[in-house]
Structure formats: structure tokens, C-alpha cells
Amino acid sequence: MEKPDWAAPLAEAYERSLAYLTTLPDRPVGSATDRLDLRAALGGPLPEAPQDAREVVARLAAAAEPGLVSTQSGRFFGFVIGGANPAALAADWLTTTWDQNACLSALAPAASVVEEVTGAWLVQLLGLPAHASTGFVTGGQMANFTALAAARHEMLRREGWDVEADGLAGAPRLRVLAGRHRHNTIDRAAGFLGLGRAAITSVDTDDQGRMIPDALSDALAESDRPTIVCTQAGGVNTGAFDPVGDICAVAHEAGAWVHVDGAFGLWAAASPRLRHLTAGVERADSWATDGHKWLNVPYDSGLVFCAHPRAHRAAMGTRADYLIHGGEGERDALDYTPEFSRRARGFPVYAAIGALGRAGVAELVERCCALAGSFAEQLAAHDGVEILNDVVLNQVLVRFLAADGDHDGHTRAVVERVQRDGTCWMSGTTWNGRAAMRISVSNWSTDQDDVDRSVAAILRCARPDAEG
């Protein structure tokens, strides 16, 4: 076997990684360059000859770093991205080093067992049924896709139709009921699965985006078609929770499948203080969440759970003569995810839970929510600033009022100024037709000083005399 020089390129990567991570508290959070400069730095003709590996790594890092958004920073508050804690990041390095294809137990025994163990831990942390099956996917999109594939299988099976064998042509038509403020991954999953986005009926929600059970009951009564109900644990704008327990009672009475999209909000179940928000969640049929949000595991790390493991495996599993399928007591990951070849995502999740423990996960979630409350309290104390949501979790919607009445234009301008300022980074959104700044607090390293510095920057950018 050839013995390449591992030490030099890995040393270069380690040194640059450590320099990047240790300077995060002082780095501007947004990108420091534009795409033209990035193309100039990273582009060029196709290399014709081999090059020194360490020099390649050094050039890549130097050229790419100005174009990075510091999502690992404690002052990054966009898109519910939680960064990566040290144990999870270190385990992710090992994952890359070991380079296991985690599709089959025979191919990656350690990865298989880690996913088995970690799946059981996650089910306990999130208060889900002990028998629920687990799949490690890329993110919330594929978690929702996988769960809805299991739902599609089971609802059509009850109608006497084998969708995996016979497809959808001629099948009983499914419908999907979901709240008006659902995440777009539900619509995309319906499209991917051949149900069609037109199969989704929007159910009325209250002023915080919570599905109204009576409205769901009315929608269920409109048709006797097989139905999937999609609920939400933590709305991406307000952080609000559908009353999942009440929804399960109504939906199950009508014979429907209930799926919970809990990309970040499902983690509230790990907190004794916040668990009431997820009351009844264990009564659902499937659940989706993200490890790279509140567990702070590196991308990619989505998680799907199903209370009907047989339906989960039927929707995802495959068999082939050239594969070595696991025997009794052996878990093949390809039976639970859409992918064949795939990264061993269980290792970083294992490390994150091991480093935090149950108490650490609860503390992380509760601290982020307390800091979100601090954001809202400090900003609301100033004239011309309006908080649009009840801050029940880690999401804060902020609107900035303009003297000329163009509140939408002023709010969008403030968001852009904050992003350019570099102290912190938030994304914009639209809530009930009104422009807003969306603050998402989900990083393990965020502290009160980060919030205070960010509030000062936001207020500075919101002043009427701030640069346009």
C-alpha cells in the first residue's frame, strides 16, 4: 500500500481550522468579500499536473476564507443555524478520516451500532415512543420527505395499494392537511413524492401561526380520502407550537396519519422547563428534526423518527443480491433513509450527546430561549421598534417603524445594514404581510455579551441617520 504524506496537509488544515475557530469572537460575522473577488481567487485553468497537497490546502483556505459567513459565531442569528460544538466537530473530523459508507452494517459495523445507540438516546431525549425507528438524513427537508414517504406507504397500504411496487398511477388519491404557516419543506416533499403540492390543503392558524384544531376537524370532515396531517413544533418565524396533542386526537379519530415537523422546536421536549410546549407530541406517527440546529452538530445532520418501523422500512428499504444485508439484530441504515452510499452521521451526534448529556442539552435549549427573550426585551424598550411575536422559544420577529410610514422598506434596510455592519447577522422575513427581522438564537457559544453587542449594533443601524 502506498504511504502518502498525511501529516503535512492535515497539519495545514488543523492550523487553519484552529485559527478560524479561535478568532470567531472577533471576526466580522458576514462575508468580507464579493463573488467577483472569490472567482478571481478560486478560479483559473484546470490544473494539469499534480501539486503539493499542503500547498493546495493552504491556497484553498486563503482564497475561501474571506467568502465565509461565520455561522459558527455566537453572534450569527440567521436561519436557525446552531454552529457545531467542540466534541461534535472533533467527531466529524474522525468521521471524515474513517470515511465509512454507513449504508450497511457489514460495511460499517461501528457506524451501524452508533446509529442504533444514538437513535435510542434521541428517542429518550425527545420523549418519543421507545419503539420508534430512526433515520440519519441530511437535514429537515429529507427528514420530512422520509417521514411522508412512510406515511404515503402506510395510508395507501390501508387502502389495499402497494405504492412502492405499483406507483401512484391509479392509486387512491392522498391529501395532506397542513397549517397555513407550514415550512416549505412540506410542500417540496409532497412534490418529490408525487403527491403534488396541490394535494396540500392549508388549515387556518391563529395570530402566532398555530394550527386551530377546530379548523382541522372541519377540513377532515370535507373528504374521506386517506389523509396525512402535518403539524409544526416550532414555527420558523414565531417559534410557536401547534397543539399537537389535540391535533392527534382529532386526526386519529378520522384515521389520519400525523407528522410533526420539529426541525428545531422538537428539542424543547428535552427541557423540563419547556417540555409543556410539545405536550402530546409522542402521540404522533412520525417526526422530523435537525441535529445541526439545537444539538449543534456540523452539517449535515437531519433526523427522522417513525412510530411505525415497518412502514418506515417498507418506504425506504431495498434488497439486492450483491449486497450483504444485516442479519438478526443488525441495523442497515439504507432501510431507513433515501440514500444508498452515505456519510456516517451518527458519530458526531453520538459525541454531541455524550459531551452534553441530558442536562447539557436542556441547558443549551433553555439558555438560547432566555437569550431570545433578552433580545426581545431590550429591543422593545426603544421607540420605533416592535416585536411581532410572542417569544415562547428562540425566535424573535422585529419590525422597525419609519417616520414616513414605509415600515417595510425601513425594516428591510435595517436588516441589510446589520448584515453589512458585521457585528452580528440576522435574516429578513415576511410575517402576515409585514417585513420583519428574524432573530434565531440556537448557538451553543452565544452568551449575554453577544446579545448586548448585537442589540447595540441593531439600534445603531436602525437610527434615522444611519447609512442607507
From TrEMBL:
InterPro entries: Aromatic_deC, PyrdxlP-dep_de-COase, PyrdxlP-dep_Trfase, PyrdxlP-dep_Trfase_major, PyrdxlP-dep_Trfase_small
N6-(pyridoxal phosphate)lysine: residues carrying this PTM: K293
GO biological process, one term: carboxylic acid metabolic process
Required cofactor names: pyridoxal 5'-phosphate
Disulfide bond among keywords: no
Entry keyword set: Decarboxylase, Lyase, Pyridoxal phosphate
GO MF term set: aromatic-L-amino-acid decarboxylase activity; pyridoxal phosphate binding
Pfam family, one: Pyridoxal_deC
Family classification: Belongs to the group II decarboxylase family.
Protein known as: Glutamate or tyrosine decarboxylase
Organism for this UniProt entry: Streptosporangium subroseum
